[in-house]
Amino acid sequence: MTDLILHHYPQSPFAEKARLMLGFKGLSWHSVMIPPVMPKPDLTALTGGYRRTPVLQIGADIYCDTALIARRLEQEKAGPALFPEGQEAAAAGLAQVADQVLFQHAVAINFQPQGLAERFAGLPEQVVKAFVADRQKLFSGGTASRLETEVALSQWPALLSRLELQLERDGDFLLGEHASVADFAHYHALWFVASNRAVAAALEPYPAVRAWMQRVADFGHGSHTEMAGEQAIAIARDSAPAALPADAIASPGGFETGQSVTVSAVDYGTDEVSGTLVFEGEEEIIIAREDERAGLVHVHFPRFGFRIRAV
C-alpha cells in the first residue's frame, strides 16, 4: 500500500503547510482527522508516542515533522520542486527559520487575550482549559519556550518588512519566480495569524505579503478522501516497511544499526519514541518498532531538531 495518508486536524498551521505542499505537488492523499490535544491513541499507535501534527503515513512507513515530509514528497514526485536545483540549501535554511522563528511569533500574536477569545469563541470552558494544559505540557522539557507577546509584537515589523521588501523586488515567491518549501514554511505561520480575525490586522501594512499569501493559497490542497484512523492502522499492519535508503552514513553519535534507542524532538513535544535503529542518513533517522495494533512500522524523523539516545 503506497497511498499517502496525512494525519492532521484543520486548524493546525503545520498541517496547513503539509496540505499545501501536497497541493503544490498535485498529489492525491487520504485525510485522517486526529484530536488537537492528547490523548491521540490512533496516531501514537503508529508513531510510538510522537504527538506533533501532522504525520504522513505511507503503508508501514511513518514520517514525522513537515521538514522530513517535504523531503519525502520530493521523492514521491520530483516536480514541481520543493527544493529547486541550485537553491537546495537556501530553500531548506529559509524554511527552518520560518518554522522556528516566524511560527513562534505567530503563536504569541494569536495568544493575545483577544486572539484567544476569538479562537475559542463558543467552546465550553473545559475544552479551553484542556487545550491550554495540553500546550503547556507540549512546551515543557524542551529547548523552546513561549515567546512573550510584547516581544513578538515588537519584533513583528522587522520580520514582515523583510518579507515585504523581498517580494516587492524579487519575483512572485521567496526564491524568485517559482515556489519552494521556503514559501510554504513562511505561509503557514502567517496563515495562523490571518485565520484569526482578532489579530489578522497585523498583516494589513504588508500588501506584497498578502498578495504572495494568495498566490501560495491558490496551490490548494490537492485531491483527498476521508479515511478513519482504524483503517490507517490496518493499512500499516497489512503492509511491510519500504526498503531502507541506500545512502546511509556513519553514525555521528557512534550508534550501531540494530541498537535499541529512543528518538525525540529537541525543542518541544519531546516525547521519546523507542525502537531499533535501522538507518541514519544525512537528513533522516529511521527506527523500527512493533505495535500490537499497527504491527511492524518504520518511524522516520528528520535529523535536524531531533536527538538519539541509547536505551
What does this structure look like?
With 311 residues, the chain is α/β, with parallel strands linked by helices. It has two domains: 4-80 and 223-310, Glutaredoxin (3-Layer(aba) Sandwich), CATH 3.40.30; 88-217, Glutathione S-transferase Yfyf (Class Pi), Chain A, domain 2, CATH 1.20.1050. The chain has helices spanning 13-25, 41-47, 66-76, 88-110, 113-119, 125-138, 149-169, 181-194, 207-217, 229-237, and strands spanning 4-8, 28-33, 55-58, 61-64, 223-226, 260-265, 273-280, 284-291, 295-302, 306-310. It has a ten-stranded mixed β-sheet with strand order 5-2-1-3-4-9-8-7-6-10, with helices on both faces. Strand 1 (4-8), helix 1 (13-25) and strand 2 form a beta-alpha-beta unit. Helix 1 (13-25) runs parallel beside helix 3 (66-76). The protein starts with a strand and ends with a strand.
Keyword list:
311 residues; 2 domains; transferase; Glutathione S-transferase Yfyf (Class Pi), Chain A, domain 2; Glutathione-S-Trfase_C_sf; 42% helix; ten-stranded mixed sheet; alpha/beta; Glutathione S-transferase; Glutaredoxin
How is the largest sheet built, in terms of strand order? 5-2-1-3-4-9-8-7-6-10
CATH topology of the largest domain, by name, is Glutaredoxin
Give the rounded overall mean pLDDT. 96
Shape label: globular
Q: In percent, how much strand structure appears in the residues? A: 15-25%
Q: Class by helix and strand content?
A: alpha/beta
| Low-pLDDT ranges | none
Brief write-up:
The protein contains 10 helices and 10 strands. It is α/β, with parallel strands linked by helices.
